[in-house]
C-alpha cells in the first residue's frame, strides 16, 4: 500500500498527494484574493508620512522626509514576490502569462437613444468604452497565481512558495490597514515653563492642507510651512531609488516620474550616490544600491534638478511668448503699412 505524503506544514497525510495539503493552502489563496482587492491602495500610503510604532520609543537619527520610503519598498517587494512566482509557474508549466485587457474602442452613441440613467444612452458598448478601467497589474498577477495554487502545492517548491506568497499578501494588508493620515512635522522644541535649556520633545503631526499645528504636550502652535521647509532641509541627504524619490517629489508638488529621473541619470544630469571607501583605500567609489541592486540618489539633488527643469521651462515659456508677441507686432505693422 502506497503511503500518502505528509503535509510539510501540518504533518498530516494529504490524500491528494501534495507537498502541502489543500487546507493549509486555503489561507494563501484567501490572502492573494485580498491582495488583489487592495492592489491600488499602497500607492496612497506611499505618498504619506507614516511613522509606525510607539511614539515613546527610541528616536531615529535618520532625517524625516514627507513620503514613506519604507512603504514604497514594501509595496515593491510584495509585488516582486508575486510576479516572480507567477513567472516561475508559467515557465515551468509552459503556459502563457496573463494579458491586461485592452480598452474597448469604437464610436460612441451619438443619438439620444433610450436613457436608463441620467447621462447615459443605455448601450452596454458605450458604457464599456466610457468607464473601462484596466485591471491593476499586481491584482492580475495575484489572481492568476491564486488560480494555480492547486498545481503549485504539488511541487517541491510548495512550502517556500506558500510562505513567500502569504508573506507578500500580508505585507500589503498591513501597509493598507495602518495608514498615517497626518504627516510628521518634527518635534516641538519649545521651551518648557520658560526654561530655555528644557525643550519640549513631543512629536507633531499635521493634517494635510492645514497651516498650523498645535503641540499635544505643551500647547504651542507652529506654522506648517516653515516646519516642512525645515524637514526638507534636513532630508536633503536622504537616499532613495528613482521610484521612491519620484513619489516624494510628487508629494511636494514637483511633477516627476521614476522614468524621468532614470533618463536624467542616463544623460548624466543626475548622479547616483556613492559609498565612501575607508581611508587609505584606492580605487573607484562603489555605487550605492538598495537590496535589489537599484541605484539610489540624494533627495536634495533630485529637488535641485527638478527646480532647474521647472525654471528652464518657465524661461522657455517666456521666450516663446515674446517671440509670438514680436510676430504679432510685425504682422500688425505690415498690415498697417499695406493699408
Q: Can you tell me about this structure?
A:
It is a single chain. Helices cover 47% and strands 9% of the residues. The model is unreliable at 47-64 and 111-118 (pLDDT under 50). It is built from 11 helices and 10 strands. It has a two-stranded antiparallel sheet. The protein has a two-stranded antiparallel sheet with strand order 2-3. It has a two-stranded antiparallel sheet with strand order 5-6. It is extended, with a radius of gyration of 28 Å. With 339 residues, it is mainly α. The chain has helices at 22-37, 42-46, 69-93, 124-131, 137-147, 149-152, 158-177, 224-234, 242-251, 258-266, 299-338, and strands spanning 183-187, 191-192, 195-199, 203-206, 212-214, 221-223, 239-240, 274-275, 286-287, 297-298.
What's the total number of strands?
10
User: Residue share in helices?
Assistant: 40-55%
Helix/strand/pairing category: mainly alpha
Q: How much of the polypeptide forms β-strand, as a percent range?
A: 5-15%
Question: Over all CA atoms, what is the radius of gyration?
Answer: 28 Å
What characteristic shape results from the CA principal axes? Answer: extended
**Run of helices and strands:** HHHHHHHEEEEEEHEHHEEEH
Mean pLDDT: 79
Low-confidence spans: 47-64, 111-118
Q: What order do the strands of the largest sheet run in, or round the barrel if closed? A: 1-4
Per DSSP, the total helix count is: 11
Q: What's the end-to-end separation, in Å?
A: 110 Å
| Major sheet description | 2 strands, antiparallel
Briefly, what is this?
47% of the residues lie in helices and 9% in strands. With 339 residues, it is mainly α.
Amino acid at each position: 500500500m502506497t503511503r500518502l505524503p505528509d503535509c510539510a506544514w501540518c504533518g498530516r497525510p494529504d490524500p491528494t498527494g501534495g507537498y502541502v495539503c489543500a487546507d493549509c493552502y486555503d489561507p494563501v489563496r484567501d490572502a492573494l484574493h485580498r491582495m488583489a482587492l487592495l492592489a491600488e491602495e499602497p500607492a496612497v500610503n506611499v505618498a504619506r508620512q507614516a511613522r509606525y510604532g510607539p511614539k515613546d520609543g527610541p528616536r531615529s537619527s535618520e532625517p524625516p522626509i514627507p513620503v514613506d520610503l519604507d512603504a514604497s519598498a514594501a509595496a515593491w517587494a510584495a509585488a516582486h514576490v508575486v510576479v516572480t512566482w507567477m513567472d516561475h509557474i508559467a515557465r515551468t508549466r509552459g503556459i502563457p502569462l496573463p494579458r491586461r485587457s485592452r480598452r474597448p474602442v469604437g464610436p460612441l452613441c451619438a443619438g439620444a437613444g433610450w436613457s436608463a440613467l441620467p447621462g447615459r444612452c443605455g448601450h452596454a458598448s458605450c458604457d464599456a468604452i466610457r468607464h473601462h478601467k484596466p485591471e491593476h497589474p499586481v491584482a492580475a498577477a495575484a489572481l492568476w497565481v491564486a488560480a494555480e495554487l492547486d498545481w503549485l502545492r504539488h511541487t517541491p517548491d510548495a512550502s517556500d512558495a506558500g510562505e513567500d506568497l502569504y508573506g507578500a499578501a500580508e505585507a500589503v494588508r498591513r501597509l493598507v490597514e495602518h495608514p498615517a493620515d497626518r504627516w510628521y512635522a518634527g518635534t516641538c522644541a519649545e521651551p518648557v515653563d520658560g526654561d530655555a535649556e528644557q525643550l519640549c520633545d513631543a512629536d507633531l503631526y499635521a493634517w494635510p492642507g492645514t497651516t498650523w499645528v498645535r503641540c499635544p504636550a505643551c500647547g504651542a502652535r507652529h506654522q506648517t510651512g516653515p516646519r516642512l521647509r525645515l524637514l526638507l532641509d534636513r532630508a536633503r541627504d536622504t537616499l532613495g531609488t528613482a521610484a521612491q524619490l519620484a513619489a516624494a517629489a510628487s508629494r511636494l508638488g514637483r511633477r516627476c516620474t521614476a522614468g524621468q529621473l532614470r533618463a536624467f541619470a542616463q544623460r548624466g544630469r543626475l548622479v547616483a550616490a556613492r559609498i565612501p571607501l575607508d581611508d587609505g583605500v584606492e580605487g573607484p567609489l562603489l555605487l550605492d544600491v538598495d537590496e535589489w541592486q537599484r541605484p539610489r540618489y540624494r533627495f536634495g539633488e533630485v529637488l535641485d534638478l527638478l527646480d532647474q527643469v521647472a525654471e528652464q521651462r518657465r524661461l522657455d515659456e517666456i521666450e516663446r511668448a515674446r517671440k509670438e508677441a514680436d510676430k504679432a507686432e510685425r504682422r500688425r505693422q505690415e498690415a498697417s503699412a499695406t493699408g
